[in-house]
Amino acid sequence: MTTFDHPSMIRQAKPTGLAGGLVLAALMLSSSLAMADATPNQLGSEITAKLQDETSIAVAPPSDSKRVYVMDPGNFHMTSTVYSIDGKSSKLLGMTDAGKLPNVMVASDGKFLAIANTMYSRVARGKRDDYLELIDTRTHEPIADIDIPEGRFLTGVFERTAGLSVDDKHLLFQQFSPSPGVGLVDLEKKAFVKIMNVPDCYHIFPTANQNFFMHCRDGSLMQFTYDNKGNTKQKPTKVFHTEKEYLLNNPYYSNSNNHLAWPTYEGKIFQAKLSETGAEFLKPIEVFTDKEKADKWRPGGWQTLTYHKARNELYLLADQREKWTHKLPSRYVFVVDATSGKRLRRIELKHEINSIAVSQDEKPYLYAVSEEAKTLFTFDAVSGKALSSIDELGRAPSMIFIADK
Asked: What pTM value is reported for the model?
């Protein structure tokens, strides 16, 4: 785990970028330590003080509605990085090391990150170690390290295969092997509880009073109620989509208002309101007109859909593309009313974008991350105006996470 003051420390060392500035700062430090006769003040008093004070930890301001977390899995490398960014200023606040394709979750109040990790004793092989870290979002220091038994697979490529409970007291994670299951972690006791048996269903959508839903192969949802010991009851919903209506891997879901929105490969969006009493399915929305469909407009990217709750607006990342290219980046966002499906606006991003998210305040920002540019771009979500960007975010930044409230 590494933290530093990006704008003042790094840019004074080298204005052209994060990585180069960090390397130069490290070289300056090693040189000053190696040469006893060197004069530290030649580096400037401010940067010298920061380089010499090795025990200090940069403390970020309290998390707010504009705080953004970008995960860089490094094109499926064995280690990942989570970047903490002040969305208002596009300044880097800190970095957190993570394992291979971790699940990243933000507490409802933004005070901590939950990162579910998988590591190996020989980096890419050897004894497997699965664990959950809770990271303070101000200090970027771990506040809990919880061991999880081997026997499942964590992956940040599929969002919602792990999730915090609505009250942030539990964490639920998906087990794929050796049998379908959902792991229960008690965050108050900082302890793993149990693998709960579930049918062959996927994704996790928590609701109040220790309930969660999963998506099953027949096109229905399954509702589960669990107690503190991991005992469960289950109840199916009706089938809400057909076998040929292929859903994208990463749906949008809000823990705070339990709104589920799930796009298909062709831009049809299924929606539901989930609660402890069941699922209320809303009328599906077709984002594209018949002419646009004929012109090959389709969704594409990793996180293709986001939602602004107060404005009741859905944002779909899309482009003109061939069929089965839904994992490739897009350059446009289509904004529609979540109730009527009426087209409100189209935002041209002018970059190859892999994932989007929108802040939940009165003046929302639209965040868009590009693996190709290694950059997080920020737009006014209403006007579409480009506001700022922050570059050199690792090797292939691909996922965005923000607090739900």
From this structure: 0.86
